[in-house]
Design a protein that fits this description.
The structure is a single chain. By secondary structure, this protein is mostly helical. The chain has helices at 4-10, 16-32, 39-46, 50-56, 60-87, 94-111, 113-123, 127-140, 143-153, 164-183, 193-208. The two termini are 30 Å apart.
Length: 209
Amino acid sequence: MENIKNDWISDKNIPNGKRAVLLAGLTLFSAQGFDNTSTSELAAEAQVSEATIYKYFKTKYDLLLAIINPMIANFIPKSALALQSEIKEIDLTLDTFVHFFVQNRWDFLKQNHESIQILITEILTDSSIKRLFVETMNIHTPFLKNILLHLLEQNNNLNPQLTADDFARTIIGFLLTYFMQVNLFDIETAKTEEQTLATIEMQIIRALT
């Protein structure tokens, strides 16, 4: 499973000071937001001087881009490719696809929750980041259209009026809503994570049929 933090930790080409600042930015930007984080707080979290931060990043915004850009430029495409590869290994019916997608992508969201939390927040406020994200998603999600066509051919009681956009919005929307509920809004639920994911699977199937 793709994990941006683990990649930074294991990449021996990244200087220790730069790695510490990246990890500090990931922690603090996700916990308290980009605008609410000062360079002095970043330095304290990274256990480096503020001069070290500016050695590797001209501005705090450059640090933000260094965190977000790999997520958009590398991890989203890699995630799409990994998902395509893994889907080939399952018996593709509506039930099996929805179950696989929900479980697989929830694991991805959990493992990268800090960077995704930052990405979601910045998409809502930064037009350039939003544009880059949308362009990348448009390039790397057409395979969902092929899955929809395959499922429609099998019947699966799918709504024949569904478009590829409807399909993608439905399967992704329920999962992202739950992610934001847990990670952005700290809303507690009476159900366990396993129970909630099972409910999401039922909701998605109901919405598609």
